[in-house]
Design goal:
Layout: H1 5-8, H2 22-26, H3 35-38, E1 50-51, E2 71-72, E3 78-90, E4 93-98, E5 101-107, E6 110-111, H4 115-126, E7 130-135, E8 146-153, E9 166-168, H5 169-175, E10 180-181, H6 191-203, H7 221-225, E11 231-237, E12 240-243, E13 249-252, E14 262-265, H8 267-275, H9 280-283, E15 287-296, E16 300-304, E17 310-313
Parallel strand pairs: 5-8, 14-16
Antiparallel strand pairs: 1-2, 3-4, 3-7, 4-5, 6-10, 7-8, 8-9, 11-15, 12-13, 13-14, 15-16, 15-17
Length: 323
């Protein structure tokens, strides 16, 4: 197994990598086990367990002695195409040779601010492997690439009913700190499980999380102004929350909504948050973590269109209620 120096050093030695535009990262239409590590609040959804990583140190991203990652369920959804890995067509885009010909697959529900490291690691790990797709949301993006969760035949993990051991590619990427969770309104079914793995990778400072350049941002408006035009994870306390007569929701994180960091939830999307008990009344005064594309609109702003991109953060730093 190739052991990247950048990964062993937590990417810090590689220098900062600028976040790519959202199209490049997401390329998407705008639109049990583990309790010993995560605690009861972070149980993965019920389902058949799949051991993803027997020992992280085998992947070259953590020192000897790091405990094995917990088993997580495989991606749930409808079985899709299968085929042989041919190569990479981008940091998170794979090329498969299927029975119907070549297929490009964009890994669903994740992005990466370290595209070069991620692409190199995937190319190395997936070389020569057979892959299978699982669909749990929108199946094609605007470039006609498959949007899917991918499982790879591997010698690691538990064998399935067909006798093959499979590893869920997105989960492994997130677990070793080479990808972050970035769900979409029409592709979010696996976000809860992936957020658990992301939190643990961040706690261990694996991969990108060992580099301050890729740390979770605070809500300071001057600092966030430097991140306009990039995809970020931002965390802070909601100081004011309101739902307008139009149905639009604003979450404010300072004393001046005209210049401070703000979260906007449009009327068409607000019911999803209300149903998830994430309406203004439930969020006021709480620390929250949001993720998405930062724009300038009366100060730095992130627009949320589904509740999987918002977590209520416990006062114990690093702990969050997975969505």
């Amino acid at each position: 197994m190739h052991r990247s120096v950048c990964l062993v050093l937590g990417l810090a030695a590689c220098g900062p990598t600028a976040a790519a535009p959202e199209d490049a990262l997401d390329t998407h239409p705008e639109t049990g086990p583990g309790a010993s590590l995560f605690g009861p609040a972070h149980q993965a959804p019920d389902g058949p367990a799949l051991t993803l990583i027997q020992a992280i140190d085998e992947l070259g991203v953590a020192p000897d002695g790091v405990p094995a990652m917990p088993a997580v369920p495989p991606p749930q959804g409808e079985a899709g195409e299968a085929g042989r890995f041919l190569g990479m067509a981008g940091a998170l885009t794979l090329q498969l040779e299927t029975a119907d010909g070549r297929l490009e697959v964009r890994l669903a529900e994740v992005d990466t601010p370290v595209p070069e490291q991620t692409e190199a690691w995937l190319a190395d790990w997936l070389e020569g492997r057979q892959l299978s797709l699982t669909y749990s949301g929108l199946r094609r993006d605007r470039y006609d690439r498959a949007l899917a969760h991918v499982s790879a035949v591997t010698s690691e993990g538990e064998t399935g009913a067909d006798g093959e051991a499979l590893a869920w590619v997105q989960a492994r990427l997130v677990a070793v700190g080479l990808a972050r969770v970035m769900s979409h309104a029409d592709n979010q079914a696996q976000a809860a499980t992936l957020l658990i793995l992301e939190a643990e990778a961040r706690r261990r400072r694996l991969g990108m999380w060992g580099d301050p350049e890729h740390a979770i941002r605070d809500t300071h408006p001057d600092a966030r102004a430097q991140d306009i035009g990039s995809s970020q994870i931002v965390e802070g306390r909601v100081t004011d929350a309101v739902r307008l007569d139009s149905g639009r929701i604003y979450l404010n994180f300072g004393s001046d909504y005209r210049s401070d960091f703000t979260v906007r939830i449009d009327a068409a999307d607000s019911q999803d948050f209300i149903d998830a008990n994430l309406g203004p009344e439930a969020l006021l005064g709480h620390r929250v973590r949001v993720r998405g594309w930062l724009v300038e609109e009366n100060g730095p702003m992130i627009r949320l269109d589904h509740s999987a991109r918002l977590e209520i953060v416990a006062e114990d730093p690093g702990e969050a209620r997975p969505r």
